[in-house]
Amino acid sequence: MTTLAIELKPNSHPLPAAEREARLANPGFGRFFTDNMVTIRWTEGRGWHDAQLVPYGPLELDPANMTLHYAQEIFEGLKAYRQPDGTVALFRPERNALRFQHSARTLAMPELPVETFIAACDALVAQDIDWVPPHGGESSLYLRPFMIAAEVGLGVRPANEYLFVIIASPAGAYFEGGVKPVSIWISQDRVRAVPGGMGDAKTGGNYAASLLAQAEAAREGCAQVAYLDAVERKWVEELGGMNLYFVYGDRIVTPSLTGSLLEGVTRDSLLTVARDLGYQAEEARVSIDQWREDTANGTLTEVFACGTAAVITPVGSVKTKDGAWTQGDGAPGPVTMRLREQLLAIQTGNAVDPHGWRHTVA
Ligand SMILES: *Cc1c(COP(=O)(O)O)cnc(C)c1O
């Protein structure tokens, strides 16, 4: 099978270098976008076609576009890091491509071939390579591939036309001036996903479902929400956009994939990185009671969250309806920081890449 060729029609008025540099000096997250984007269309009977790299800009949407009404939307998030030799590498893009296919199946959308997903990421990064921050920090170029229904109409059924888009945004270090532990609110009333639903798909709908609990967490003085399973309201699943790990000395445990939590690429990578560093790493069910009791008895030494945006975020404190506790001594723990450092070193090219996770952009 040949990969769909991407027609290159780049922006003829890219942002002047001085302005780009000013943005790269303090990019934040998701505030600035590069000069270009990639778009690919799918139509029933014709399949994927019209792959183009074009200037970044607004999409024209009919008010009756089906996405606006029935939310057939999926997305991905991955980072391009500047390597010590000046080249740029994506981190495990094939995992994102495969997850995108899984998300598409869950929402009755067409699957974009893995090669096309990666070729589209490559084309955008190659064109906007000057937007990739320099090597030496935690900054990166964040890629946001997504797909929406492109058909117009209010009939409820899977659309027969779709639009795939990739945009790119420079991202600064998640933690300015050092890693800071996050506070967690455990949501015992609201859930984000149900068995048989779409919790293991990366779709905006799951984020919409998480926002009310997120606002509740903010009122409780917490930065993030941890969700429990929807049936027993007992098993810890994940945060709204990050997976969780529990550290028991030299054994680390992440909640098993139940179908209602998202399989993070960071989560998966850490199972391997941890074993490479000599830790025992496993997937298991963890209950809210176990979390509380093992913290109290001192066996649960650290908890951290992980995802592409923050890599690893230590959990410093936890609050529930029935009480609150400090996680460990509230400061980032040594296992958390060791894993964070090692994963970042692989991503940024400061460590060898024994599993072939770096994908160099041509
Ligand atoms: C994207 C996401 C994650 C983290 O996945 P990574 O591939 O590690 O970035 C975790 N949970 C949810 C709900 C997500 O959407």
Automatic annotation (TrEMBL):
Gene3D superfamilies associated with the record: 3.30.470.10, D-amino Acid Aminotransferase, subunit A, domain 2
Species per Swiss-Prot/TrEMBL record: Streptacidiphilus monticola
One Pfam assignment: Aminotran_4
PROSITE patterns on file: AA_TRANSFER_CLASS_4
Enzyme Commission code: 2.6.1.42
Keywords assigned by UniProt, alphabetized: Amino-acid biosynthesis, Aminotransferase, Branched-chain amino acid biosynthesis, Pyridoxal phosphate, Transferase
Catalyses which reaction(s): L-valine + 2-oxoglutarate = 3-methyl-2-oxobutanoate + L-glutamate; L-leucine + 2-oxoglutarate = 4-methyl-2-oxopentanoate + L-glutamate; L-isoleucine + 2-oxoglutarate = (S)-3-methyl-2-oxopentanoate + L-glutamate
Coiled coil: none
Pathway annotation: Amino-acid biosynthesis; L-valine biosynthesis; L-valine from pyruvate: step 4/4; Amino-acid biosynthesis; L-isoleucine biosynthesis; L-isoleucine from 2-oxobutanoate: step 4/4; Amino-acid biosynthesis; L-leucine biosynthesis; L-leucine from 3-methyl-2-oxobutanoate: step 4/4
Family annotation (InterPro entries): Aminotrans_IV (IPR001544), Aminotrans_IV_CS (IPR018300), Aminotransferase-like (IPR036038), B_amino_transII (IPR005786), BCAT-like_C (IPR043132), BCAT-like_N (IPR043131), BCAT_family (IPR033939)
GO MF terms, alphabetically ordered: branched-chain-amino-acid transaminase activity
Cofactor(s) of this protein: pyridoxal 5'-phosphate
CDD domains, alphabetized: BCAT_beta_family
Matching NCBIfam families: ilvE_II, PRK13357.1
Family under the similarity heading: Belongs to the class-IV pyridoxal-phosphate-dependent aminotransferase family.
Protein name: Branched-chain-amino-acid aminotransferase
Chain segments annotated as transmembrane: none
